[in-house]
């Protein structure tokens, strides 16, 4: 069977080698079928042509790119047909230019050769090419590097190769030729992966050399290659490689050392096999071992059972058999793991699994179970499964504990937020106790009450944040007694009485078992950690011990993060004073600027209300701009004189003023303060670049005595606010200037459009009609609103390319001949060449450039098909043809609407996108 399997795999391996070589070579490579349609493109071909492989597949080569002569600018003779029909290899001279998808032209050299079947029939071609400018320089540098490397490699006994950046062999030492029994003529100048019977054609090796050694100046040691070499047979070679440079130049070379390690590897393999046998034997010496005979229906019949089975499970072998065999021992949540191992064994796969069993006394234990299936050649199936199991409960619990602690460490290092940290820690504990379905963490934040700050596995969001008294349920009992608790059946627990707030939560009512541990932090209980299940008797004493062990580091982590968070909060309050100016200046929306200003003042000056008044220089007054904290709406009507108001006083005196005695206010202002119950007031002028921008006002509904620190903070925030307002004004001026520039562009575009129509009186009004109709149809098809302005510009400029078409062709009354049609079909390319240098019009180019493409791929200038054509061009194509058909032209009279509609319907799926046609017909009907 093994031999057959290997023989069946040989074609796949061959195909794998070919695909690896095809996609990893540095040159661009394209393979086609016998019709010249593209099958494969490697990454370099994708880069040079601008097409992704999945886009180009199934397309003929000329549709993906064109090759022209650099001197004559004429297209190179169709080499595809030469190769496929004549079976010859066609070389592309160094004067060839490849025109890719984006129009960029790249000088290339290469060749196209036929792909033949064993019968000699041509099954396709493969085209390989590269940018020849880079190659010339690379060859010069490689030659210099070769001379340098040759001086090195001849001095060592180990077989050495010096490779250039393309993995060509620059030189080899005598040891190489002696070891592999080859000549310099068979080696130097060839790619390393072509040597011999392609013994070095290894994708992983090539990737290491090209992607690690060359760019990163790294090295590797003892890369193992086992191969049947052409002249010396099967050998195991160890490769060492590093990058070197020729002195005075930065030309990278690779020094590849090759060591014949065949005999050493054979000795190591023999030793490994011996070690493997001893390892298997040692693994099989477990707590108990067994053998099962596999019946033809896949069922198992126990043949023998030896070892400490009764000690591990609590059952005698006879009791276990009477109860139903091995399945009845499995802890129900882990039955799927055991069944998966059984299916693998039946399929002939040895495996090791870890799952839990349920002992006779009700305790849960972890075991590691080995399964070794035995294949019978005569029966052609698995006939026996040997098994061995060991009790790993203590080891597993320690492993789960360490895993949870590792998650604790990551969470503490990654989370600064107390709430998110609590959730991650709870999730880590939940994963350490597989029996748990849900978990919750509650903190004592109110007198005699606990609040849930983290809940994992619960669907109802009402649980998060809920509070309950410490005299309720087993959670409260755990907090009061400061001892861990195991609840085997919550429905039978006397203290489990549903609190009124929990009664409506279904997941709480369904709770059956739980384990709860107190959270001790520095001799103080700060809360509880609880794991729950809907199944009774879901938890064991071992689970409770693990939870209690994890509760202490969890509590310390929460305590430390809370302290850190409180310290950080104080630091942020101080840092906010320094960073608020930067945040405000970077805000470009003046309304958002005002909102940020009032909120920052409210937070950092502890005010009850904040207002911003802007200076009106024409009227010499201060008027409302923003506010927060006022109970009445009167402040929004503020319009006060600089000469008579408290705010005006701050502006006139260029300094902060405060009023704590309201008797000093004029009657009008005193009445306003009384309605809002303000007891103190402060104002700071906003000056930027020597100009008054406005005044900040803060109001207090409590007695307030300003301090020097308060005044300095107020002045600093006022300075930053003034700069922010000034910055917003500057940006607003820039937006106005940009708007004027955009309007100028639009006027220019409309002028071009009118100039085209003045030239062609027969189509006067055509452009505006198709523009309006295209926008309506685009809206009906759900085109994004942001694209509409670009569609409008594209419609207005759709025939801009006709500016270069002679009048004799444009206004010809009769049909155009082939030569005239060739000129006429150039107008989309002319439009592209004319408009593409204008960055403002780049998003609008799809209509002028592609509106003559057809859905079936027979259009021009690119021959695109289907959804390769931009949507806006597909929409415009229908509208353009519709308007042309129902309009008089020099060469024909207008069609009737019915005739035009029938034509549009007939061309759906040919000339037009069927979906666009369907939407157009609905639009016409409306």
SS-based class? alpha+beta
Widest sheet: strand ordering: 2-1-6-5-4-3
Distance between termini? 72 Å
Number of helices: 30
Mean pLDDT: 81
Biggest sheet layout: 6 strands, antiparallel
Q: Report helical residue fraction.
A: 40-55%
The stretches of 5 or more residues where confidence is low (pLDDT under 50) are 1-9, 569-573
Characterize the overall form: extended
Oligomer: single chain
How many DSSP E strands? 28
**Rg for CA atoms:** 41 Å
Q: Report strand %.
A: 15-25%
What does this structure look like?
The chain is α+β, with helices and mostly antiparallel strands. The protein has 30 helices and 28 strands. The strands form 5 sheets. The chain has a 6-stranded antiparallel β-sheet with strand order 2-1-6-5-4-3.
Keywords:
926 residues, 6-stranded antiparallel beta sheet
Question: In short, what is this structure?
Answer:
With 926 residues, the chain is of the alpha+beta class. It contains 30 helices and 28 strands.
Helices and strands, with pairings:
Elements: H1 2-24, E1 28-32, E2 38-41, H2 43-49, H3 53-56, H4 61-64, E3 66-69, H5 79-86, E4 90-99, E5 105-116, E6 122-131, H6 132-153, E7 159-163, E8 169-172, H7 174-180, H8 203-216, E9 219-229, E10 233-245, E11 252-260, H9 262-284, E12 288-294, E13 300-307, H10 309-313, H11 317-323, H12 335-346, E14 351-358, E15 364-376, E16 381-391, H13 393-414, H14 418-432, E17 438-446, E18 449-456, E19 467-469, H15 473-481, E20 485-487, H16 506-509, E21 513-521, E22 524-533, H17 541-585, H18 590-604, E23 609-616, E24 621-628, E25 639-641, H19 646-653, E26 657-659, H20 667-676, E27 680-688, E28 691-700, H21 708-759, H22 766-780, H23 788-796, H24 807-810, H25 818-824, H26 827-835, H27 846-850, H28 871-885, H29 897-906, H30 914-925
Antiparallel strand pairs: 1-2, 1-6, 3-4, 4-5, 5-6, 7-8, 7-11, 9-10, 10-11, 12-13, 12-16, 14-15, 15-16, 17-18, 17-22, 18-19, 20-21, 21-22, 23-24, 23-28, 24-25, 26-27, 27-28
């Amino acid at each position: 069977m093994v031999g057959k399997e290997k023989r069946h795999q040989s074609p796949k391996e061959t195909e794998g080698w070919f695909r690896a070589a095809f996609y990893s070579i540095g040159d661009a490579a394209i393979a086609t079928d016998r019709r010249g349609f593209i099958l494969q493109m490697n990454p370099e071909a994708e880069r040079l042509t601008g097409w992704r492989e999945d886009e180009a597949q199934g397309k003929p080569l000329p549709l993906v790119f064109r090759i022209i002569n650099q001197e004559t600018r004429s297209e190179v003779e169709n080499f595809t047909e030469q190769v496929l029909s004549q079976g010859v290899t066609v070389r592309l001279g160094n004067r060839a230019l490849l025109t890719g998808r984006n129009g960029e032209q790249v000088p290339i050299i290469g060749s196209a050769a036929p792909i033949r079947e064993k019968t000699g029939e041509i099954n396709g071609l493969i085209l390989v090419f590269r940018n020849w400018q880079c190659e010339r320089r690379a060859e010069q540098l490689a030659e210099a590097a070769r001379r340098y490397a040759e001086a090195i490699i001849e001095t060592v006994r180990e077989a050495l190769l010096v490779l250039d950046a393309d993995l060509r062999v620059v030189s080899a030492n005598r040891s190489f030729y002696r070891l592999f029994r080859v000549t310099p003529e068979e080696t130097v100048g060839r790619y390393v992966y072509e040597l011999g019977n392609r013994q070095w054609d290894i994708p992983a090796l090539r990737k290491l050399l090209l992607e690690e050694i060359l760019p990163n100046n790294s090295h590797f040691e003892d890369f193992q290659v086992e191969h049947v070499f052409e002249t010396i047979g099967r050998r195991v070679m160890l490769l060492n490689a590093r990058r070197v440079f020729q002195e005075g130049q930065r030309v990278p070379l690779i020094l590849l050392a090759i060591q014949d390690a065949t005999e050493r590897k054979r000795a190591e393999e023999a030793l490994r096999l011996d070690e493997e046998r001893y390892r298997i034997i040692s693994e099989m010496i477990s707590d108990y071992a067994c053998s099962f005979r596999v019946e033809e229906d896949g069922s198992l019949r126990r043949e023998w059972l030896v070892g400490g089975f009764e000690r591990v499970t609590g059952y005698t072998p006879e009791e276990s058999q009477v109860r139903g065999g091995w399945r009845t021992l499995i802890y129900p949540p882990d039955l799927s793991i055991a069944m998966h191992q059984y299916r693998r064994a039946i399929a002939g796969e040895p495996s090791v699994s870890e799952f839990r069993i349920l002992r006779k006394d009700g305790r849960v234990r972890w075991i590691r179970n080995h399964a070794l299936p035995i294949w019978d050649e005569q029966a052609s199936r698995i006939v026996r499964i040997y098994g061995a199991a060991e009790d790993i409960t203590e080891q597993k619990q320690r492993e789960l504990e360490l895993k949870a602690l590792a998650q604790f460490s990551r969470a503490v290092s990654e989370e600064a937020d107390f709430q998110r940290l609590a959730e991650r820690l709870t999730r880590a504990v939940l994963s350490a106790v597989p029996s748990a379905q849900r978990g919750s963490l509650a903190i004592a934040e109110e007198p005699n009450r606990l609040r849930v700050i983290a809940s994992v596995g619960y669907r109802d969001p009402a649980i998060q944040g809920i509070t309950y008294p410490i005299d309720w349920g087993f959670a409260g009992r755990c907090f009061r007694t400061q001892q861990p608790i195991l609840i085997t059946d919550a429905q039978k627990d006397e203290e489990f009485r549903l609190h009124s707030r929990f009664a409506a939560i279904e997941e709480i009512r369904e709770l059956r078992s739980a384990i709860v541990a107190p959270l001790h932090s520095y001799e103080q209980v700060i809360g509880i950690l609880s794991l729950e299940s809907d199944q009774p008797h879901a938890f064991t004493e071992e689970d409770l011990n693990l939870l209690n062990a994890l509760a202490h580091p969890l509590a310390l982590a929460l305590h430390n993060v809370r302290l850190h968070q409180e310290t950080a909060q104080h630091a942020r309050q101080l840092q906010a004073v320094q960073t608020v100016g930067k945040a405000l200046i970077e805000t470009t929306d003046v309304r958002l600027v005002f909102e940020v200003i009032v909120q920052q003042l409210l937070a950092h000056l502890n005010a009850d209300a904040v207002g911003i008044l802007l200076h009106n220089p024409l009227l010499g007054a201060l008027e409302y701009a923003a506010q927060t904290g006022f109970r009445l709406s009167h402040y929004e009507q503020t319009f006060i004189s600089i000469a008579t108001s408290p705010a005006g006083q701050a502006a006139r005196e260029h300094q902060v003023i405060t009023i704590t005695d309201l008797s000093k206010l004029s009657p009008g202002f005193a009445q306003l303060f009384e309605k809002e119950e303000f007891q103190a007031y402060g104002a700071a002028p906003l000056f930027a670049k020597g100009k008054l921008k406005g005044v900040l006002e803060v109001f207090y509904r409590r007695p307030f005595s300003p301090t020097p620190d308060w005044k300095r903070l107020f002045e600093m925030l006022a300075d930053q606010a003034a700069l922010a307002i000034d910055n917003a004004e500057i940006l607003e001026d820039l937006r106005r200037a940009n708007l004027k520039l955009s309007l100028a562009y639009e006027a220019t575009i409309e002028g071009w459009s009118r100039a085209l129509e003045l030239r062609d009186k027969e189509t006067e009004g055509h452009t505006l009609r198709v523009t309006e109709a295209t926008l309506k149809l685009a809206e009906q098809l759900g085109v994004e609103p942001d694209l509409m302005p670009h569609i409008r510009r594209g419609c207005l400029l759709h025939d801009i390319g006709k500016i270069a078409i002679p009048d004799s062709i444009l206004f010809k009354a009769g049909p155009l001949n082939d030569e005239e049609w060739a000129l006429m079909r150039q107008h989309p390319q002319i439009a592209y060449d004319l408009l593409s240098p204008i960055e403002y019009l780049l998003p609008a180019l799809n209509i002028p450039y592609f509106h003559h493409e057809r859905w079936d791929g027979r259009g021009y200038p690119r021959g695109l098909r289907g959804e390769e054509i931009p949507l806006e061009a597909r929409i415009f194509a229908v509208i353009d043809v519709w308007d042309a058909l129902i309009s008089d032209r020099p060469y024909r009279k207008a069609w009737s609407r019915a005739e035009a509609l029938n034509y549009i319907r007939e061309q759906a799926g040919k000339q037009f996108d069927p979906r666009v046609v369907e939407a157009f017909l609905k639009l016409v009907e409306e």
